[in-house]
Write a structure and sequence with these properties.
Strand content of chain B: 5-15%
Number of helices of chain A: 12
CATH architecture of the largest domain in chain B: 2-Layer Sandwich
CATH topology of the largest domain in chain B: Alpha-Beta Plaits
CATH superfamily of chain A: Cytochrome-c3 Hydrogenase, chain B
Number of domains of chain B: 2
CATH topology of chain A: Cytochrome-c3 Hydrogenase, chain B
CATH architecture of chain A: Orthogonal Bundle
Number of strands of chain A: 8
Number of helices of chain B: 6
Oligomer: heterodimer
Shape of chain B: elongated
Order of helices and strands of chain B: HEHEEHEEHHH
Number of domains of chain A: 1
Radius of gyration of chain A: 21 Å
Structural class of chain B: alpha+beta
CATH class of the largest domain in chain B: Alpha Beta
Helix content of chain B: 40-55%
CATH class of chain A: Mainly Alpha
Bound molecules: iron/sulfur cluster
Largest sheet of chain A: 3 strands, antiparallel
Order of helices and strands of chain A: EEEHHHHEEHHHHHEEEHHH
Strand order of the largest sheet of chain A: 1-2-3
Strand content of chain A: 5-15%
Helix content of chain A: 40-55%
Strand order of the largest sheet of chain B: 2-3-5
Shape of chain A: globular
Chain lengths: 362, 176
């Protein structure tokens, strides 16, 4: 038995896109305990509801996260619509879901690239990000932004997507399918990738449930929990939706789940683009949330379930706005997955939860 | 199983056109709806201050007394909210990115006073619809020139501040 030592990991580390600090207690190159620490990028966004009215706050909400920007603006808008009893047009619901699924495609492809980078496959990383550009171009054409879209508003959406553009969505996504499948083969069948990821950072299904893990991280441990299956908004109109799960419970499974979710999202976009009803894209919202009115909402972000809570006080300014982001749910699971792993696998395991620390700290 | 699953794709890339463009010689086309910068049609502005009050980053200042409208482009987050609240429809989102700047200062646009006074008096007698129409027509033709003005103004201000040799190079590069 070797001597115990503590290795600090992060907040600045080449593999981490975001500031997370880990104290790794190491013995013979094996991690026996990992203590995560966050708090480096707290921005106090929730407090801004006191100085921004409920219409303005949507632009703050979408800045919670640069990758799930669309999901946050949608989740926030839905919460306020519930708070004020607003029913939005069907077309707006469809458009929101189409954009939201498109952002899942871009988020997962981005993550696959980062994972490739974490296990040292630079070429794979670049090919992933090259494909992601196509998706970002679609966003730019329809919303005017590449990362932050400012296209949702309380009561609907600000821009419409016409039929020819929807067809373009479908054709671009079908166009990248061939290349995407080659990339998936590299992730899922390449022996060098498999050696690096299978059997690493295993969390059993029971443990995943105990730790309340969410999103692809939980689904890779065979927990069939996906908020989309609740059928909120246009998700209710899908002909069939089954959460994608894997029973391998390791880093390989997490890659497998995300890789398959991209294909699932593309199928959802195709289905909704064919079904989208005509009509208005927004309803006017007047007045303010009632005193002591409360509403909550859940949205399946690319990283997992995100919970929103809002409380009104009779003015245009909310009394309280709270979000619980998927990463804060998954940090505990990450610390458990790190126990007993090899020091060289730490970056892979940290990355497989797809940590989004800025969301967590807001 | 087996390694080099990405071999085909990587090898293929050797013979493909590069994905990236040679910026700034070559530029990617900007889509029409791009959120670039906020332009104002000063002739239509009534200095009501709605945009000032609704901007989430407080980057617009409307001064009725001195009759100007100003924007701090460094603080603007291109959220488009001001465009949606303006009662006269005189703000628009242009599909050009704001030019980079070395110093941070608010851009000031003087709003002509006399036109406003004239407008206020005339439409009163007319029915509302006619009024709306009369205002819509100039609106549609304006934004294009408004944006060109904004860009030129910013550019000229910046070029004036540079040393002449550099400025001429920039001019040549921009094809001015
Ligand atoms: S730009 Fe529009 S909203 Fe702003 S002061 Fe002028 S008229 Fe009012
Ligand atoms: S686009 Fe948004 S941030 Fe920019 S001036 Fe308008 S309201 Fe303010």
């Amino acid at each position: 038995m070797g001597k115990k030592s503590v290795i600090p990991f992060g907040p600045q580390h080449p593999v981490l896109p975001e500031p997370l600090h880990l104290d790794l207690v190491v013995e013979d190159e094996v991690v026996i305990e990992a203590t995560p620490q966050i708090g480096f990028v707290h921005r106090g966004l929730e407090r801004l509801v006191q100085t921004r009215d409920y219409n303005q706050f949507i632009y703050v909400a979408e800045r919670i996260c640069g990758i799930c920007a669309f999901g946050h603006s949608m989740g926030y808008a839905e919460t306020i619509e519930r708070l004020m009893g607003v029913e939005i047009p069907k077309r707006a619901e469809y458009l929101r879901v189409i954009w939201h699924e498109l952002s899942r495609v871009h988020s997962h492809i981005l993550w696959l690239g980062l994972a490739a980078d974490a296990f040292g496959h630079e070429a794979l990383f670049m090919h992933c990000w090259r494909l992601r550009e196509r998706v970002l171009d679609l966003f730019e054409k329809t919303t005017g932004g590449r990362v932050i879209f400012s296209v949702v508003k309380v009561g609907g959406v600000q821009r419409d997507i016409d039929a020819s553009m929807l067809n373009q969505f479908v054709s671009v996504l079908e166009g990248i399918m061939g290349e995407y499948q080659q990339i998936c083969r590299a992730f899922l069948e390449d022996s060098s990738v498999r050696n690096r990821t299978s059997g690493v950072g295993v969390i059993s299904t029971e443990r995943a449930l105990d730790l309340s893990m969410v999103g692809p991280f939980a689904r890779a441990s065979n927990v069939p929990y996906d908020v989309r299956s609740l059928g909120n908004g246009a998700y209710g109109d899908l002909s069939d939706f089954q959460p994608i799960v894997s029973s391998n419970c390791d880093c390989y499974a997490r890659m497998e789940v995300r890789a398959a979710e991209v294909i699932q999202s593309i199928a959802i976009i195709k289905e909704l683009a064919a079904k989208i009803p005509a009509g208005d894209i927004a309803v006017p919202v007047k007045g303010a949330p009632a005193v002591d009115s409360e509403a909550c909402n859940v949205v399946e972000q690319p990283r997992g379930e995100c919970y929103y809570y809002a409380k009104g006080n009779g003015t245009k300014y909310l009394d309280r706005m709270r979000m619980r982001t998927p990463t804060s749910q998954n940090l505990a699971g990450m610390a458990v997955a790190l126990n007993g792993c090899d020091i060289a696998d730490v970056n892979m395991i940290v990355l497989t939860i797809d940590p989004c620390i800025s969301c967590t700290e807001r | 199983m087996g390694a080099f699953k990405l071999g085909n794709m990587t090898f293929g890339s050797l013979f493909k056109k590069p994905e990236t463009v040679k910026y700034p010689v070559e530029k990617k086309p900007q889509p029409e709806g791009l959120k670039g910068l906020i332009a104002i049609d000063v002739n239509n502005c009534i200095l009501c201050g709605m945009c000032d009050r609704s901007c989430p980053t407080d980057c617009i200042t409307v001064d009725k007394a001195e009759s100007y409208w100003s924007i701090d482009r460094f603080a603007c987050i291109q959220c488009n909210y001001c465009v949606t609240v303006c009662p006269k429809g005189c703000l628009s989102m242009r599909p050009d990115y704001a030019p980079a700047g070395a110093t941070r200062q608010a851009l000031r646009f003087d709003v002509p006073k006399q036109e406003k006074a004239a407008k206020k008096e005339t439409p009163k007698a007319e029915p509302k619809q006619a009024e709306a129409k009369a205002e819509k027509a100039p609106e549609e033709s304006k934004p294009a020139c408004a944006s060109a003005d904004v860009r030129d103004e910013v550019l000229e201000a910046k070029l004036a501040g540079m040393d002449p040799e550099k400025a001429s190079k920039v001019r040549a590069a921009l094809g001015l």
